[in-house]
Structure to design on (513 residues):
């Protein structure tokens, strides 16, 4: 057990280490060029801004070539771009960064570029919708035209050529040749001049949609270039990197102080470790002895409550550690000892601090067992008892062995009658009793006739059964205080005590028995 002063010294060392660690943490916070949470949030926002700007161009190209009218995806991306730009301008994530003029300048350029892109997106959505409708309408318009003039082969060829040209232009993402288109339209109109008025009206509608598609197709590449350009994406990110590098340079002094403090703490930790390592060895050894000892160990506090028990205690008593910690050891009491027994125990502990002796306790399953118990008191620096350590071991087996040894020494193993040794001992006591009281006693020697013949003809097992039966019957014939003993073989002795003082009456009593 460590001393009171030693425990306080360790507490002082721990407190010093904690205080030093707090200083190091404070220095570490001071050495950060920017707030880490804002740094991560800002990097995430700039990264999201770049990804959304790239994805906007990708989604627009998909809409362009697939002629889709579902603008939910590009609308969501445009909304995120506006939100991210607004967060960089007004939000908390870039509150420190907005002090940098270069970043503000790059942010202005970015916002202008985004405004152009979002305006181009709206114009593209309108143009793409018209283009989709017109390209979807042209095949129907051509078919309707040809149905009204089935014999106009030149009109059929001219309309097919124009439609095929426009579809190839769209699929190949090229710009239609306006001169060729106008020449084809002029040829188609000349060939359709002889058509009926209704067919010429359909031809005119077909030509108007052709010119509309050509006009839109010529303007779409410029819109796509506006929305897919990423020239200004890196501007705010580059400005932030320059800002971060500038702040990082200002932390060099704090880094040096932090390194020096860390080295000092490391040196102190090594010093403390070397001092405590030896103590740790002793504690580990004590803990190993406590855990692996075959002897049951119980530790109680000054109030008599159980603080800890070892595994041997749990094996012997059947109680788990959780069952007994915090409780009084009297939960093991068997009830076989009176108050005087425990009073003597506590008197010895109060006077000498120790006690040992045989005691009967009770297991968790209710079984009562004997144990040899030793109790030692641990005192503090003020001389008061701080705890007590009880160690004991189960002596049930020893008690059983003693009983078996006693049985083998004084009783016949076959019939369980007293043997010659116990008979002689009882004869000595009986003779001494007769001498004091003038009473009479008798000793009867009995053997069995032809017992050897029974053994030889029926076997020793039958002979043993006969001897046991004779012993039973002899015990049934005598009084409670008399003794029936077996000397060996088929020889039995009956010792009668407390007969009449008159010799004649004593002989009569012995004969009746």
């Amino acid at each position: 057990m460590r001393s009171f002063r030693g425990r306080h010294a360790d507490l002082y060392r721990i407190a010093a280490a904690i205080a030093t660690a707090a200083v190091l943490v404070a220095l570490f916070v001071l050495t950060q060029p920017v707030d880490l949470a804002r740094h991560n949030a800002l990097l995430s926002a700039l990264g999201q801004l770049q990804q959304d700007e790239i994805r906007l161009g990708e989604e627009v190209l998909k809409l362009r070539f697939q002629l889709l009218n579902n603008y939910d995806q590009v609308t969501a991306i445009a909304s995120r771009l506006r939100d991210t730009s607004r967060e960089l301008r007004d939000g908390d994530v870039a509150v420190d960064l907005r002090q940098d003029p270069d970043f503000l300048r790059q942010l202005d350029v970015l916002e202008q570029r985004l405004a152009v892109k979002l305006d181009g997106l709206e114009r593209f959505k309108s143009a793409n919708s018209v283009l989709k409708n017109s390209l979807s309408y042209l095949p129907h318009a051509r078919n309707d035209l040809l149905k009204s003039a089935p014999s106009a082969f030149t009109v059929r060829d001219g309309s097919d050529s124009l439609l095929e040209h426009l579809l190839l232009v769209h699929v190949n993402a090229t710009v239609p040749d306006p001169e060729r288109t106008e020449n084809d339209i002029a040829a188609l109109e000349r060939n359709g001049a002889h058509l009926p008025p209704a067919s010429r009206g359909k031809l005119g509608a077909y030509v108007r949609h052709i010119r509309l598609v050509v006009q839109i197709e010529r303007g779409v590449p410029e819109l796509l270039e506006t929305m897919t350009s990423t020239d200004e994406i890196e501007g705010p990110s580059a400005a932030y990197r320059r800002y971060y590098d500038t702040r990082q340079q200002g932390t060099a002094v704090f880094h040096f102080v932090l390194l020096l403090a860390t080295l000092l703490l490391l040196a102190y930790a090594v010093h403390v470790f070397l001092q405590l390592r030896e103590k740790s060895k002793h504690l580990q050894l004590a803990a190993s002895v406590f855990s692996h000892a075959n002897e049951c160990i119980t530790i109680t506090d000054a109030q008599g409550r159980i603080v800890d028990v070892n595994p041997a205690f749990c094996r012997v008593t059947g109680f788990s550690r959780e069952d007994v910690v915090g409780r009084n050891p009297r939960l093991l009491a068997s009830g076989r000892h009176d108050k005087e027994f425990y009073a003597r125990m506590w008197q010895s502990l109060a006077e000498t601090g120790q006690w040992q002796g045989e005691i009967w306790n009770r297991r968790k399953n209710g079984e009562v067992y004997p144990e040899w118990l030793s109790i030692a008191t641990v005192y503090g620096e003020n001389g008061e008892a701080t705890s007590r350590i009880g160690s004991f071991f189960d002596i049930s087996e020893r008690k059983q062995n003693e009983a078996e040894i006693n049985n083998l020494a004084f009783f016949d193993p076959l019939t369980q009658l007293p043997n010659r040794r116990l008979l002689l001992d009882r004869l000595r006591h009986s003779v001494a009793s007769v001498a004091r009281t003038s009473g009479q006693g008798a000793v009867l020697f009995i053997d069995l006739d032809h017992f050897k013949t029974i053994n030889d003809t029926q076997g020793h097992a039958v002979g043993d059964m006969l001897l046991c039966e004779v012993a039973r019957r002899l015990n049934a014939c005598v009084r409670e205080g008399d003794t029936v003993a077996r000397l060996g073989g088929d020889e039995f002795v009956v010792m009668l005590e407390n007969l009449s003082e008159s010799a004649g009456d004593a002989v009569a009593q012995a004969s009746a028995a």
